[in-house]
Amino acid sequence: MTPNKLPIPDVSRETFEKLEQFSALVEKWNPHINLVSKSTIPDIWNRHVVDSAQLFQFANYAPKTWLDIGSGGGFPGIVMAVIALEKSPVTKFTLIESDQRKSTFLRTAARELGLQIEILAERVEDVPPQNADVVTARALAALSELFPYLQRHLADGGCAILPKGKTYQDEIKAARQDWRFEIKSHPSMTDQQAQILIVKDIHRD
What is the rounded distance in angstroms from the CA atom of residue 178 to the CA atom of residue 173? Predict the structure, then answer.
């Protein structure tokens, strides 16, 4: 049985429909590329679309540049770019995905959804510093592994928005062994054990 769809607060009907269109596109491509875990497809709206959409509220007001690393199937990068069409049309999006097949999907999704975004099919450590106001990464790596990328690509005063699961406190503790940073956490609306981490001012000890 398909779970009931969670709402996405404060978006227009047009934005909602674009997100539904994207969800259907992921379902269509997933058997060929494995964009998301097959077991999550019956609940793709809640597990991936809404789980990604909730991140937008934590962004800086009208950020000029937004970088999504390890974009995979477009969660949260494509979802953020769709919402930004309505909420922050000045924001320029760049998505980094080293897997060539997934980056091809991301370009297809961007074209079909009318998104003017840049897709870089490279390893994140090989991309020149992006000086981004916001960086997102979902289900990519532990904080200790993410921080070198965040330090490289965040602008001064920028923030990283990172959804994390139930081990988030262990990740924070491990990261503090080598890094100094500001961090705030907010409960996830899709998973009672998860948190959304907002990280700023990242420096290696």
Answer: 10
